[in-house]
Amino acid sequence: MKKLLKKFSPQNILKGLLLGALLLLPLLIQNGPYAYYIRSLGLIGLYALLALGLNFTLGYAGLFDLGYIAFYAIGAYTAALASIHGWGFLPAAFCAVVLAVAVRFLEGIPILRLRGDYLAIVTMGFGEITRLVLNNLDSLTNGPKGLPRVGENIYPARLLGFTLTTNTHYYYLILILVLLAVVISYRLEHSRLGRAWVAIREDELAAELSGIPVAKMKLLAFVISGGFAAIGGCVFAFWERFVTPESFVFWESVLIVAMIVAGGMGSIGGVLLGALILGGIPQILQVVLVGSRWIDYRYFFFGLILVLTVMFRPQGLLPSQRRKTEMLGE
Amino acid sequence: MGGLAYAKPGLRICIILSSVTQRQRGFLREEIMAKRGILFFSCTLLAGLLFLCACADKSNVVRVAVAVPLTGDMGTEGQGVRRAVELAVELANESHRFSYPIEARAFDDRADPKEAVSVANIIVSDPKTIAVIGHYNSGCSIPASQVYNRANLAMVSPASTNPKLTQQQLESGWSGPRNIFRVVPTDDVQGSFAADFVAKKLKLRRVAIIHDKTPYGQGLAEQFRDRFLSDGGSVLSFDGIVIGDRDFKALLTRLNSIKPDGIYFGGLYMEAGLLLRQAKELGLRAPFFSGDGSKTDELIKVAGPAAEGSYFSITGIPVEYLATAKPFLEKYNQKYPGVSVKPFDHFGYEATNIVLDALAKVGSDRGKIIEELRKTRYSGVLGVTEFDEKGDTKNKIVTMTQVRNGEFSIVTN
Amino acid sequence: MFSQQLVNGLVLGSIYSLIALGYTLVYGILMMINFAHSEVFMVGAFLGLGACALFGHVGGGWVSVVGVFVLAMAGGGLLGVLIERLAYRPLRHAMRLIPLISAIGVSIMLSNSVFLWISNQSLPFPQIIAGHPIALGNFELNSLQLLIFTISIVLMIGLSLFIKHSKVGKAMRACADDIATAGLMGINANKIIAITFLIGGALAAAAGVLNGVYYGTIKYNIGFLVGVKAFTAAVLGGIGNIAGAVLGGFVLGIIEVMAAGYLPDGNQWKDVVAFVVLIGVLLLRPSGLLGEKIAEKV
């Protein structure tokens, strides 16, 4: 009986309601004037997926990665090329993940012994190199003109016999993926792996001396995050059906880092909230300010909100348990 | 196992509550308050937004959406197109041509394809919008066009030159009407024209080509290269630059050492101006050629005296020379004093007028407007505009201009 | 051609170095990446433009040139101090990456502010320092290039001397070593930090003016790309190290120019080359070219 009551704790009821709302929302609004919210939520969902992926690297393991969007790009381009050559969604996704994981592995090995901000710059370098290569290798990627080329097509995803074409379809796909990501994150966070990562984040030397295989753990975090990004990129390619290097600029990597840090490093709820707010605010502002002169101020407000958010909640919007205990001790 | 997971939060709170001091309990309360505060705030925000949007639009206004980059790196150019569109709408309202008010609504796609599609979704959801002028970058226009197609909304692009934008309407996957039009010609005409000019009129043999790695600039450069080669010329180099980069001295120094007869640049005025300026500083005196993306007073501002003698091809006849364009320039300078016209502004102006023309003929039904646009034969700042079966403008007149005494003059044959 | 390219690289490098110094100074004391620094550079350029308009009425000559620099640098320094006071200091006790987010927000606000309230066009920058060619052997050196290089070197040497020999400089070095202990020694850490941001901002503004004069136009978005390069330069040289920032700036400038000048299709690939070199250097010397290996005390 007690266990049952605990199941219905206010926290869990809230989570349940939220989930219910997310599941029902598209069905309610898709034929009305607010249908574009479905797309906005889908995009926020993709950001959430990315943020959850980077959370392994930055949130749990504490590795400052400024080049994460490159793996989203690798996922998207691989999927695009696969689809153009007739491959279906699942084979394309598989390919994308394998490639992203391999590149992440190769990136990780030489650079994981770098300290803090040096790691940031090098990962940024990798990110930029990836984007520039995608932009310059016209023969493969059609450069700035993007894929697909004239006369080619990226076909909509076919999953289990069902063709995904509308915003609503992709919304549900993304929702499922985000929920999966949350479950995986939760499981890993509360496993030996998760504790090892936190140990590395808090004090790498002590962790090493305690017997944790630091290099292997770091690489694992790196690689797992790469996989998440690749899947996100794959979905993006099939949804948008057009990929250009412009979508994968350095600024996007910075944005995802901001989502994690402002939301609450290492906290799943915090990361999701960060993605919702930082991903959602530009969209909300576009809608709210539409038609007025204020629309030019959209990003100014975004910057202001960013500053105010960290100013008033420096521990993150929904900090992880550890952070809460730390702040309590002040 | 599952039950334990649910028990953990409750258990945790119990442990914390029983072992923290009074002060720390205050912090915990603060945490819970903060969470409640966030929840309350977001609920009110959401409610407020829905209320705002729900305020029904009961007026009889008709809207033309303009979707361009209003902020970010391409903000300058997008704002220019927006100004031109707003000017056209304002003039239409002033002339009382319509019995109802026309409104131009600007949307910011930030030159980001994702934003462009989001913006497209918002635009099509407004039943009072009858057409969209946009987008600016081909990378934004192409994905957005699919949204407009599904919503049966006419799209007239003032600046996207990637052939795929209109070509995709002829492909098998395209359902629904052919609702995409553009008033700006694709690059195949300008590039070839310039190549012929350089090879046959000026009789230059060895040319170095630079482009800005955008669909517009690179497309132009590739066209020039192909035609120039077939005209018997030789292309010494084909280099890409990055928009936003300002130092091209390394590239120009290398070109200086291979001594080209001429330099062709596919790109926009900012980079063109910087290239001209830096070329002059390095003593690189080969004549400079570029396209309509560079032909604007901004170029002369950026390049200064280095612009003298350089050539720019444009589609149609220069705005300053066209009798029908004079009111545009006058009104533009009146409404926006001190702001120079950007290369694609008059395309935006023309696009809007073509749409308004169609509106006047068939009323505000989206489908009818698309059909009427296909039959367009409009005379304005671009000369005469008609659309072919793909929606591309048939206006393929190209004029070559040259900078003389700080101004653009037509090069007569 | 080689000597010309070398000159190109050195001038480009001077501008990178001036900005890199700002990044490295702040990082040395606060262990923080001042993301907003590149926008101080941009604002400094606009301040310089305003100053030119002011002095244009007074009269030309060296007085007005110095005046423009002084005004712009004062403004840039002030802006740096203001940003620190409003956006970073309240967050100093927080986790290391939090001030970075604030910096990002400030950076967005600054570039958008200029876009919204000053100009969303590119504005021409007056040629307050006229350049004329100086023939040296078989290539032409522009006096403007020489001047930019010289001004940058003078500023860097001035900074170096200041750090080494003045009392404030000593205090700055102490804070960079161990800010807590420096506080215990009686150094007012807040004041020193403010001075650091002042100097960084002033240098960035000077770089902005030089950039404006050299390229002839300025725009609200010139900060971002240069900022990324300058920060890369600072890391390349060893972040926290002043000589490293200078060296990094010049090395990066030269690498970029050489890649663009000599590789086939070089101009497209120069950034890739620059980053590959960066990664290579950091693999061999993980603390940067001149960075010190800080032994971790257990």
Question: Which structural traits does this protein have?
Answer:
heterotrimer; A: 330 residues; mainly alpha; two-stranded antiparallel sheet; 15 helices; 73% helix; 1% strand; C: 298 residues; two-stranded antiparallel ribbon; 11 helices; 4 strands; 74% helix; 4% strand
Order of helices and strands of chain C: HHHHEEEHHHHEHHH
Oligomer: heterotrimer
Report strand % of chain A: under 5%
Radius of gyration of chain A: 20 Å
Tell how many strands the DSSP assignment of chain C holds.
4
- Proportion of residues in helical segments of chain A: over 70%
Distance between the termini of chain C: 53 Å
Share in helix of chain C: over 70%
The gross shape of chain C turns out to be globular
- Biggest sheet, spatial arrangement of strands of chain C: 1-4
Number of helices of chain C: 11
Query: Total domains of chain C, how many?
Result: 1
Query: What pattern of helices and strands is seen along the backbone of chain A?
Result: HHHHHHHEEHHHHHHHH
Taking all residues together, what is the mean pLDDT of chain C?
87
What is the CA-based Rg of chain C, rounded? 19 Å
Could you say which structural class the secondary elements and strand pairing of chain A correspond to?
Answer: mainly alpha
Structure description:
The complex is a heterotrimer of chains A (330), B (413) and C (298). In chain A, strand 1 and strand 2 form a beta hairpin. Chain A has a domain of 215 residues. Chain A has a two-stranded antiparallel ribbon with strand order 1-2. Chain A contains 15 helices and two strands. With 330 residues, chain A is mainly alpha-helical. The longest helix of chain A is centred in the last third of the chain and has 27 residues. In chain B, the strands form three sheets. Chain B has a seven-stranded mixed beta sheet, sandwiched between helices. In chain B, helix 9 packs across helix 10 and helix 10 runs parallel beside helix 11. The longest helix of chain B has 33 residues. The radius of gyration of chain B is 27 Å and the shape is globular. The N terminus of chain B is likely disordered. Chain C has one domain. In chain C, the strands form two sheets. Chain C has a two-stranded antiparallel sheet. In chain C, strands 2-3 form a two-stranded antiparallel ribbon. In chain C, strand 2 and strand 3 form a beta hairpin. In chain C, helix 1 crosses helix 9. The mean pLDDT of chain C is 87. Chains in contact: A-B, A-C, B-C. At the A-B interface, helix 1, helix 2, helix 3, helix 13 and helix 15 of A face helix 1, helix 2, strand 2, helix 4 and helix 5 of B.
